[in-house]
Design a protein that fits this description.
Elements lengths: L2 H27 L10 H24 L2 H40 L10 H26 L4 H17 L7 H31 L1 H9 L1
Helix pairs in contact: 1-2, 1-6, 2-3, 3-4, 4-5, 5-6
């Protein structure tokens, strides 16, 4: 597989995954996090599928700038990827399939084990550190969108801070910002590959020589 194909497929995965996860997150958030809402499970499935797509796209996002991102970029990517697995697939599975059933059939267990009170802050800290390192390395590399990178950094800091603040919709909004940033990266990867293909095409090359 050529590098241009890898970047294009990664961009598609990030774009589709980011948009699906954003939609599902906002639906759940604005349904007041009601686990028994008829929209809860479909929205949760949208989040899970979206997360699977953008997790497949993340390696291509890193590879696109690996030669300039350095060690900081590599460490940041690894931490961010692992936190996406924990907070993404792991948490989505619990909240889509397990907690709604517990809420309906065993309300006393619906809050989950006490260990979750430790899991979420630690996973959130992992996400924060990974996003900050990856974001800083991305800004220094200067290859990917600066605006999307800043949005990712803002979303990471806001998401971590939101876990200590009780405000309506805050968690859903900050999480959606992360997914939007990833979708933005995906769009940029796709558009850059299109521009590169057009510039390298024989017709364009011939016309540029004539000019």
């Amino acid at each position: 597989m050529s590098s241009s194909t890898l970047y294009r497929l990664s961009g598609i995965g990030l774009l589709i995954g980011g948009l699906l996860a954003t939609l599902g997150t906002l639906i759940q958030g604005f349904s007041n996090d009601n686990l028994l809402s008829p929209l809860w499970i479909p929205a949760g499935l949208a989040i899970m599928i979206g997360e699977m797509f953008f997790l497949l796209g993340l390696p291509g996002l890193y590879t696109r700038q690996a030669h300039k991102a350095g060690v900081i970029g590599l460490v940041g990517f690894i931490l961010f990827f692992l936190s996406a697995l924990l907070l993404g697939i792991g948490t989505s599975t619990l909240y889509t399939f397990i907690f709604p059933w517990l809420t309906q059939n065993a309300p006393k267990l619906a809050d989950g084990p006490a260990a979750l009170n430790l899991f979420f802050p630690l996973a959130g800290l992992l996400n924060l550190i990974g996003a900050l390192l990856f974001g800083v390395a991305t800004l220094r590399a200067g290859i990917l969108s600066r605006a999307a990178t800043i949005l990712l950094l803002v979303a990471a800091v806001s998401s971590f801070a939101a876990s200590f603040v009780s405000l309506p919709y805050i968690n859903s909004i900050t999480t959606a910002l992360t997914f939007i940033a990833l979708a933005w990266f995906g769009y940029m990867l796709i558009s850059k590959q299109r521009v590169g293909a057009q510039v390298a095409s024989p017709a364009n090359a011939q016309s540029s020589m004539q000019v």
